[in-house]
Each structure stands twice: as C-alpha cells, then as structure tokens.
Amino acid sequence: MLTYDITKAKGSIYEYIYQCIKSDIICAKLATGEKLPSKRTMAKNHGISTITIQNAYDQLICEGYVISVPKKGYYVASLSGMTKMKKETNISYHIDVPKENHAGSIDLSDNRTDTERFPFSVWARMVRNVLSEKTPELMEVSPTGGSMRLREAIAGHLKSFRGLLVDPNQIVVGAGTEYLYGLIIQLLGAEKTYCIENPGYKKLSRIYAGHHISCRYANLDEMGITCSGLEATRANVAHICPNHHFPTGITMPAKRRYEVLSWASAQSGRYIIEDDYDSEFRLNGRPIPTLFSIDESETVIYMNTFAKSLTPTIRISYMVLPVHLANLFYRTLSFYACTVSNFEQFTLAEFINEGYFEKHINRMRLYYIRKREKLMEAIGKSRLHSLCEIIENDSGLHFLLQLHTNQSDHDVQMALEAKGIHVAALSEYYFVQSDKEHYFIMNYSNFKLEEASQVFDEIASVI
Amino acid sequence: MLTYDITKAKGSIYEYIYQCIKSDIICAKLATGEKLPSKRTMAKNHGISTITIQNAYDQLICEGYVISVPKKGYYVASLSGMTKMKKETNISYHIDVPKENHAGSIDLSDNRTDTERFPFSVWARMVRNVLSEKTPELMEVSPTGGSMRLREAIAGHLKSFRGLLVDPNQIVVGAGTEYLYGLIIQLLGAEKTYCIENPGYKKLSRIYAGHHISCRYANLDEMGITCSGLEATRANVAHICPNHHFPTGITMPAKRRYEVLSWASAQSGRYIIEDDYDSEFRLNGRPIPTLFSIDESETVIYMNTFAKSLTPTIRISYMVLPVHLANLFYRTLSFYACTVSNFEQFTLAEFINEGYFEKHINRMRLYYIRKREKLMEAIGKSRLHSLCEIIENDSGLHFLLQLHTNQSDHDVQMALEAKGIHVAALSEYYFVQSDKEHYFIMNYSNFKLEEASQVFDEIASVI
Fold first, then answer.
1. Which of A93, A132, A178 is the closest to B336 by Cβ?
2. Cβ–Cβ below 8 Å for A64 and B140
3. How far is B207 from chain A (nearest CA, A)?
4. pLDDT tens digits, residue range A407-429?
5. CB proximity list for B43: less than 8 A, separation 6 or greater
6. Are B133 and B282 in contact (CB under 8 A)?
7. Rg of chain B (C-alpha set)
C-alpha cells in the first residue's frame, strides 16, 4: 500500500503527496502501468480528505505522470522517452560575468554623459504628474512606433531645435539605438551591404556582424567619409555621423553633404543612416543642420538618442524615416510591439513639452563648455603643454590629444594603465590598418576636473 | 555690397545673416569663389557688431559654405557635389498608419490581459519609493543582462513560484520577448534552423522571417509537438510552449517532455526555447513544472514576460540561459546595452520583492476563474448551448469553441464581423493547410461579461 509520511509535508499536503508520487514514478519505484490506490483508499490510509488526493492526482494527470481510465482507476503513465540524460562533460557550471571596465581607475575612454547632472527631481516630478494624471492612453498599448504623445513632443523638439519638419508618424521610438539598428536591418533587408566610417564607432561593426549583415569600411578625409570610398565598397547603406564624427570630431561640410546625398540618390535602394548622437552638445553656435533636412530624395534615416542628452539609464531612442520607408515600416514591421514602456514615454513627453529638455540641454552645454575651458587651462599649466597638440573641432564631449612621442600607442596605454589611467587611442577605432599613431581620445563628460592636472602630468611623465 | 534687411530677422540677427548668406550660396546668387565682405565692413554696413558677423561667418565656415583664407578673407566654398536633386516621381507623401484593429467592436481575438486590473496605485507607490530612495545604482548603467536587483528578484520569484533554481547571472532582461528572440538568434547563430508549432503563434514566423532565419513547422498531436515532426524539419532549435500551447491549450505531458529533451540532447547545437508566456494564470492546481527544470543537458532557454502577468504597457521580459549559453552571451553579446530603463527595472524589482507580484497573480487567477465560470454559465443558458462543444484545457485565458455548423470558418467570421463581433478561428493559426475547421478561439481576458449572452446568441444565430 502506497503510504507517505505526511508529517514531513512542508507546504500543502496535496503538493507533498503529488511530489512523492511523482518522484516514485521518475525513479521507477512506481512502474509504468501500475495501478494507483483509489482516491478514497489513499485518503483513508493517510487520514486526509479525498479532495486533497483528488488535487494531487489531477496535477499528476495534467503533467502526464498518471493516466485516468474511466471506471477503472489511475495508472502510472509510460515515460518511455525518459532516458535519464547523462550530464555531458563539456558542461560548465561557472558563469564568467564580464567585469565593469576599469573600475577604480580614471577612465578617459568612457564617453557616457555625466549622470550626476541628470535633472532627477524634475524627472521625478514628471513621473508623479504622469501617474496622478493617469490618462486612459497610459494604460493602452502604444502603437508600434511609440505613443503619439511622445512622438509629437519629439517632432516639436526637432522643429524648434533642429529645424526639422517631420510628421510624428515618421518617428519610430525604440529602446536604444542598437535596437533601432536591428529594425532598420529588417526594414531594408538582409541583402544590403552597409558601410561604416573608418575610423568609427566599434560597436557598429559588432552589431552588423551580430545580425550577419555584410559590413564594409570607407576611409575619411578631412571632410568626412569620401564618396569614392563609399563607391568602392559597393555598399547600399552608409551609416555615418556627419554632424560630429566619433572619434575624429569632423563635421562634414556642405559640399561633402551634397556629394553624399547625390551618391545616395544615384541608385535606387541606397540609404544613409544619419547618426546625430550628440548634436545637442555642440559647444558653439547653432547645431549643424541635418542631412535629413536637405535630402530631397527620401534617402536619409535620421537617428538620435536620449541616452546621451539625458542619461544612459533611460533607454529611449528614435529614428525618423523618410515617408516611403515609414509606409514600408507600417506594412511590414508593425506587428512588433513598441519596446519602451508607456510610463517612460509619457514622462519623457511631459519633460519635453514642459520645456525641461531644452533647459537641460542648454545647462549641460554651458557646463561642458566651462569644463573644456578648465581642461585646456590645466593642460596649458601642466608639463604636457609642450609635448602635445590639442585637436578639437568645436563640438562634442571629447577632443583629441596628439602626443609628441616615439612610443607606440600600446606602450603609452600600458604605461598609463599601470598608473590607473585608462585612455583610448584613435588607432583603436580603425577597422583597417592605419598610420594614425599618437592620437588619444579625451572623453571629458565623465572626467573629474580635480584629477586633470595629475592626469596630464602623468601622461607627460610617460611619454 | 551684400546687404540684408535685418528688420526682417525673427530670431537672433546672427542667425538671420547666416541664413541669408547660406540661401544666397545655395541658389548661386553668391558664386563659388566670390569674396565676402570683411567682418568689419559687413558689420558697419548693417549697423551691427562685428561679433555678430563673426558668429554668422563661423557657422557658415563650420557647415562648409564659406572658407576662411588667412590674411585674405572669406570666400564662398565650392558646392560642386550639389546637383539640385529632382524629386523622384515614386516618392509618396502620404503615410498609411495602420488602424487599431476592430476598434469599437467586440474583439474575442484580443489576447491581451485586462489592463484595468493592473494594480496601478501599488505600482505608483513602488515608483515613488524608487525615486525617493534614489540609490546610487539607479543612476549607474545596468549590466547588459539587466540590473542585479531585478535579476535577483526574478530568480527569487522563479524559485518560489516555479521551483526553478537559477543563478541571477543566467537571467537576461530585455524590452519584450520579441527583442529577446532577436538576441537568441544572434546568440545561436543565423545558420540555425528554427521549428515552431503548427498551429502556433503567428507573430513568431514573422519575427524569424524578419531576421531572415530559416523557420519550419512541426505538427502537434494531443500531447503537443511530435519528435518525428521535429526530426523531419531538420531544425536545430525548437520554439515551443509546452506548458500551455497557444491556441490549442495543450499541456505537454511528462512523457513527451522527456522525448523532446532527448531530441535536443541527441545532437550538439540543438536547443529548445521554452515560451512560458502565461504559466502564472493556470487556473487550477500548481503551475506545470518547466522543461528547463528537468533539463540536464543545458539545452533549454526559458522565456517569460511581464506583459501578460502585469500589463502590456510595461515592456519587461526575461530569458534564463543555460550556463554555457550565459557564458557565450557574456563573451559575444555583452556590448549591447540593456534595453529596459533602470527606473522600470528597480520598480519591478521592488514590486516583486515586496510580494505584490505574487498577490497580483493570485488575485488575477481568481478573477479569471470566476470570469470563466460565468462565461460557461452564459453559454449554458444561451441558444449556442446545443450548437457547440467547449474545449478547454484547464489553463490560460482562452478556450476553444467547436461550432456545429457546415459553414466555412471564413463565412462564420464574416457573418459575425457584420454584427460587430471579431473572433479568430483555430484554422488561421496553421502555417500549413489544416482540416481543423469550426474551432474558434475565445480569448476572455479582455472580454466584458455583460456582453456574453448577447455574443453567444449572435454566434448561435449565425451558424
């Protein structure tokens, strides 16, 4: 007679009985085809209610360990497929989680914006407003391109700040530019060849590789990507940062812009992805007008992110599609749900509409201008002064330092690393071999001013 | 002499001057190579400061419309690439935004959970707690797999609710399961062939097609996907819902589970994606144990989403990777940023840790049980009673209605559509031809009880 010691039950008795029978079936103590006691017998035997046994049997039936044969009773099911699988020898039990890079050291390769300056209390107020307002749309699933409220707010911002006139329906909101690149790849088709800038943003090539997309590189001259380089790659899609190239800082002049646009319109199916990732922080003058705004052939996809302009801990980016691509998007990809939660979309919309976004950008721009001035001063006063050239293009949150040294970039980096200073070399951003030695990237958005003189002296001592 | 009417300036004068000169260059009123007036002359001529002209010229130089020649002056740059691009005739100006489906009608095809029952005020309290606590990690970029706080909370939930013991590092949080499918495709490689269930969730095939992934279908028998079907597709990855298949409601019994696991472990590189999308709402008894929990060969990727269990307006899903895939993920894809904002991750973690998630699930399960009972009652009382069979598998938020009719599914649907009732047929969920006519899916999570008798009478009158 099947008996279990129900005093050992830790949770409900039904669950305990279910677990006991299941274990006995799995380890074959109860054989295939064996008849189980009736519910009543089983209940009586354990001094518990029939309902409890019923529940345990039901669970076993539902999971397929037991079969109920009408008017006959309960039988152990056949588990013939259950060949106890041996653990393979190559199975690992240790998870190798990547360490946060350069923790504890001074990291000049970190190009994330300063999160301490995120307008936390204003943002918190917007969140509370959205929660207390609780409009019906807040609990409605937003369209695939994002909530209309946020897209209208972005369109308004693009108009006033960027001089761009776009229909909110051309805007697609997503959880980060990396996610949007994936959508673009699906939208334009996997047979396209992409071209990125050399040097350029290394993550891009990894994203295209991750998506198994053919990706080539075109060299830059002093005006940015060259059309001859573009032509030579036979690419269909050029992914570029014309307004402030990373890491060289080049701003593409008008002449080259028209050339690139004319490359795109010369053959149907050619597109330009205009990555405008830090246009908000151009330090002097107006932001450079976008390629999108002077494109008359619907070849430019404009992309931007709030990860730079607000904080990387909020994952909201957007792209602006030319009209025919917006239509293609709605026809082919509208089955995707928008990847940003309504709460965040509505909060950001309120933040923009109330004018806080523009205020924040203006405040940050001033802050970065002052920071840069102080850094220049610190270099001027340091021993590095006579050993370097500062190359800056009046924009963005980094500049290049050309060091007068004969050491290799790698040697300079190793020597600095030993002193707890991490710095990226321009040569690392080349996908194909380059002779651009001795240029180092100074990302100062996250750099502490009080460490500046020490860092510049250390650099001087190393070279 | 270059003169502009500065009384027409709407914004700053520097911007007005800059715009005027730029327009004149673009329309060739100022020719390539032409010399611009000196800053002083220009300033005097307009009665404004030299600084203003300087700013306008700087902007033009920066954008490449003007060149500054040291000691000589300012010249109009060559814009040779600028062949005024003609608008192509195939360019569209109208954006065709897809309409929200079946608005205003009774939609039984809508399988989204009832957002009205989202515990809004508790959620709002968690948000406020997170904002007022403002831990330093809240403003730190979370690791690629998600913030540890949320991953630990999910691991705790999986342990208590699902009996799953996993290392939080095996969990990858993302903005929706659709996004996570994309990550899996990148993780396992594009050369894999995927197999989905026939019938099954239609969006899956669109997602795999969107990623240009080879995708096949295997038929189900009464125990779920068949291993012979799986073998025949020569697929490497089986994407299945063993715990509650949509739309048939089949729960895969133990025997088949072991068979499917043994299929996966028979060849290296085979994997199972276990989609556990609505396990929280199994209406009776314990949730069915996962495939992941009985897999000893590291072949199962477990997936779940809070879109079903909380609200579709919050975009948080997660997957649990077997250890060797977690390591592969960190090695190859950790350059991706996590797609969920910290605010939402921390709020959800708090919501789970404070026990509200479990309470919510329990409350919703009870609510759905009662709703289903009332629906069954309504069918019993309606004229439909004698004209249908109810097929339900004790789980999930839908059941199947087999109608006794000779009409085609399409005719039934059209007749109901004319009465403002939208209903999905099981036959629509087949990727390859099927003879499963006359089965209709009753999603009741969003269905209003007070409309039930009317709807069932309408269905009866149509068939």
1. A178
2. no
3. 8
4. 999 999 999 999 989 999 999 99
5. B49, B50, B52, B53
6. no
7. 31
Q: What is the DSSP string of B266-294?
A: TSTT-EEEEE-TTGGG--SSSPPPPHHHH
- Give me the phi and psi of A219, to 5 degrees please: -75, 160
Among A152, A159, A286, pick the best mutation site for testing chain B contact (most B Cβ within 10 A): A286
Fold assignment, B106-112+371-462: Aspartate Aminotransferase, domain 1 (3.90.1150)
Shortest Cα distance, chain A CAs vs residue B384, angstroms: 28
Unique residue bearing structure tokens 């008996």: A3
Question: Containing H/E element for B388?
Answer: strand B388-391
Q: Does domain B115-359 have CATH number 3.40.640.10?
A: yes
Query: Do A307 and B59 make contact, defined as CB atoms within 8 angstroms?
Result: no
Q: What is the pLDDT of residue B237?
A: 98
Q: For A161-202, how does the pLDDT look when each residue is reduced to its tens digit (9 = 90+)?
A: 888 889 999 999 999 999 999 999 999 988 999 999 999 988
What is d(CA B287, CA B277) in angstroms, rounded to the nearest whole number?
Answer: 12
Three-class DSSP category at B337: coil
How confident is the model at residue B324, as a pLDDT?
A: 92
Nearest to A333 among B179, B210, B261 (CB): B210
Residue B104 pLDDT? 64
Residue pointed to by tokens 């500054």: B68
Cα(B264)–Cα(B298) distance, integer angstroms: 9
Range list of H helices, A37-172: 39-46, 50-63, 120-133, 148-162
Nearest CA distance, A186 vs chain B (angstrom)? 5
Cα-based distances in Å from B251 to A206, A403, B39, B75, B286: 40, 67, 80, 77, 13
Contact assignment for B179 to A176 by CB distance below 8 Å: no
What pLDDT is recorded for position B87? 42
Chain A neighbors of B92, CB-CB under 8 A: 323-324, 327
The 8-class DSSP code of residue A26 comes to: H
Share of chain A above pLDDT 90, in %: 50
C-alpha span between A389 and B177 (Å, rounded): 49
Count of residues in chain B: 463
Among the CATH numbers 3.20.20.70, 3.40.50.150, 2.40.300.10, 1.10.10.10, which is that of A6-76? 1.10.10.10
The residues spanned by each domain of chain A are 6-76, 106-112+371-462, 115-359
Look at B315 and A340 and tell me if their CB atoms are within 8 Å: yes
Average pLDDT, chain A: 88
B307 and B348 Cβ atoms separated by less than 8 Å: no
Closest residue, chain B, to A206 (C-alpha): B335
Please indicate whether, in this complex, the C-beta atoms of B87 and A265 are within 8 angstroms of each other. Answer: no
CB contact (8 A) between residue B339 and residue A339 = yes
pLDDT band at B82 (very low <50, low <70, confident <90, very high): low
For residue B24, CA distances in Å to A258, B41, B47, B57, B79 come to 16, 19, 21, 14, 12
Reported ipTM: 0.86
Do the domains A106-112+371-462 and A115-359 sit in the same CATH topology, yes or no? no
Return the half-sphere exposure (C-beta side, CA atoms, 13 A cut-off) of residue A136.
0
Please tell me what DSSP assigns to residue B432: S
Residue of B nearest to A56 (CA): B285
Read off the pLDDT of residues A110-141 as tens digits, 9 standing for 90 and up. Answer: 777 777 788 999 999 999 999 998 888 898 88
Query: Do residues A432 and A198 make contact, with C-beta atoms less than 8 angstroms apart?
Result: yes
Confidence of residue B101 (pLDDT cuts 50, 70, 90): low
Burial (CB count <10 Å: 0-12, 13-18, 19+), residue A450: exposed
Following CA atoms B402, B405, B409, B414 in sequence, which dihedral angle do they give, to the nearest 10 degrees? -120
pLDDT value of position B83: 45
Residue A88, pLDDT above cutoff 60: no
